[in-house]
Amino acid sequence: MSMQDTAFPNTPKGSRFGWPRPARLEEFKTRLEAEDLPTNRVVFQGLNQDLPIIRVPIDLPKYRMANGRTASLQVEHLALNPDLRSDLFTGDPELWDAQEVQHELLLKLGRASDLNGYFQDPAHQQVDPLLLDENGFIVNGNRRLSTWRQLLHDEPEKYGHFEHIEVVVLPHATEKDLNRLEAQLQIDKDIRADYSWDAQANMLVAKMERDGIKAEELCKLYRMKDAEFAQLLDMRAYADEYLRSREKANMWSEVSGQEHTFQRLVQHRSKLSGVGRKEVFKEAAFALIDEPTAVGRLYIAIPDLAANLDKVVDRLAAKLEGEATTSDDGLDELFGTGKTDDNTGAKEAGLINALKDSAQRSRAREEIADVLEAERQLKKDVKKAGFLLDQCAKANSYLTAAAKDGLRAETKLTGVSKQLDEIEARVATIRAYLV
């Protein structure tokens, strides 16, 4: 059987996922000729329109590929199944293979929001009609339709009430009209509850790239402030970069639960000065995202990382020294050449290379976690009346251990003199205060 035969069955009920277009249009014409049809009010094309409700077989409608909720799932599905045609979701939406995959993706979303559990109770039946465009593609109600279809398919006797469903067929409309309706019906009410942040971001990007809608217009459609829109796209850009750096391109489910993490990353990176420091912060944040349990709640750890970045840089430079080799990747051009008058840039470039090295990331993550935990504890201790004595006691303990166990032939001496000079300066400050 050819793809054409598979996509367009000979009889209207030959497909679970939508009748052929001529059959759909003929069914609409026949049903809409009935008298005294109930109506449903829809604000569409700038007007309050009372449109007739008709009952059609559940197999008749087709899923809309430009469905915002499935934006991330679609690109991830293609990444997981590279043998599929690349235009599965952007080509002809009539084709069986696209409709079948979209059905599975919508089912996944329906299970995640417990639509499936809700409609498994036969007492819960359809209340609001689904909205279809003039060609029979679902504009609003894709998840509900997929759930009802699956329940009916699996247990036809129990869910026979879903054999026919109520729909409203919208008048002729442009894609802009449909986008505006989608925003009105879905985004205003429940995007933050039903859309993952990455799905929302990928939907917006798709509308710009696929439909040619400008950012300004999207902000109006979805009632987003310019700064909110820009931040969301920045979050998506960092998440995309993170996934690609871990060889997980388009695997959006890996970051769906990290909305606040990428939000904090965007917010705090923008406050840092210097290209090198920004890059170190980003790569360090990526290392923490790999193993979030290492630092607890990431949306707290990311701001802490930014606040203590200099201490983190110093610790990593000391611990990874000799390992953070500089490669010919263009970093020198951005951060310095490593000459004596540009030690800071060379250090940052070396750390970035180290953080990009999967073999060193684990150790770097441990060191970062130690610094952040030490700083958190320090904030707690600083409020105590005995803080000064406690810290001096700790310093004394560390120096005692250094003098006892660190004076060995194999001990690395580089940087020790500088540390002692700084310690002596701090001691002088404290002694001056005691006088």
UniProtKB/TrEMBL annotation:
Residues 1-20 are annotated as: Disordered. Residues 1-13 have a biased composition (Polar residues). It comes from the Bacteria. This is ParB/Sulfiredoxin domain-containing protein. It comes from Aurantimonas manganoxydans (strain ATCC BAA-1229 / DSM 21871 / SI85-9A1).
